Amino acid sequence: MELRHLRYFVAIAEAGHMTRAAEQLGIQQPPLSQQIKALERELGVELLRRHPRGVSLTDAGRQFLREAESLLEGFAQMRQRMARVANGQEGLLTVGFTSSAAAHAFTPEVLRLYRRDYPGVELDIHEDNAAGLTEAIASGRLHCGLLRVPVSRPESLVFETLLNEPAVAAVPCDHPLAQGRQGRKPRPISLAELCQEKIILVRQPGAPGLYANLLALCESQGLRPRIAAEVDRMMTNLNLVAAGAGVSIVPKSMSGAHAHAVTYLPLSRAERLDAPLTLVSRLGEDSLPVLHFAAMARRLAAR
Length: 303
Known about the structure:
Layout: H1 3-15, H2 18-25, H3 29-43, E1 48-51, E2 54-57, H4 59-86, E3 91-97, H5 99-102, H6 106-117, E4 121-127, H7 130-139, E5 144-147, E6 157-172, H8 191-195, E7 198-202, H9 209-220, E8 226-231, H10 234-242, E9 248-251, E10 262-266, E11 274-282, H11 288-302
Parallel strand pairs: 3-4, 3-5, 7-8
Antiparallel strand pairs: 1-2, 5-11, 6-9, 6-10, 6-11
């Protein structure tokens, strides 16, 4: 049995006449009649009663009509779904974010726009540190991700810098460094001042990129930071800063976190640290949902 046999039978049932159905189908009547007789033999049941003025359905024919119409409708819906999949309108997109990337306004905005433009694509979202995201994308567990400074660059992955923003110092509101600096334009803080305090960093190999750059900058100036703690994620940095455990460095877009407990200070211009927002995907990626997401991220970043 083939789909055309179902279409033939439905056409005959709707027309109530073999010849008229053949004309509608664009085939000759004798072959059509033979196809239906072969279908009846295959099913082992009579579907039609033939009479001089046309045909009528048997009880089995009426049941088969319902089944045939359901199958044809399901097949039509499947074709439509596959067409949407082929156009990237349906499917699955697994995206990962670091906590600091998720804190940037760009991240919820690109997700909102993607959900609006591709409502048929299922979004599966994960959070991890930069090292975990990189490994998950390289192994195929995630399609793509947004992170800050890459911690490794496997040859199978592509790293695209979408945005750049400065890093700022985060200090407790009641810390001496914050006194007199909480106006509209707080005075920048120097690395020398920062290195006199207990500094909280993200431990390696989780997300050392920004902090590796900080330590390298300190070393170039002969400074030795006092490391108070190493944590897994940048948001944990800020939780500890808010608790008065030390100071830290975070991307400027995280400045709203713990606003009543943390003061954010710019670094001196000569000691600027950049915190990029980086899109990571697989080299040669051909999944349309991924390609559409990457293209949307580039357009939004360009704006």
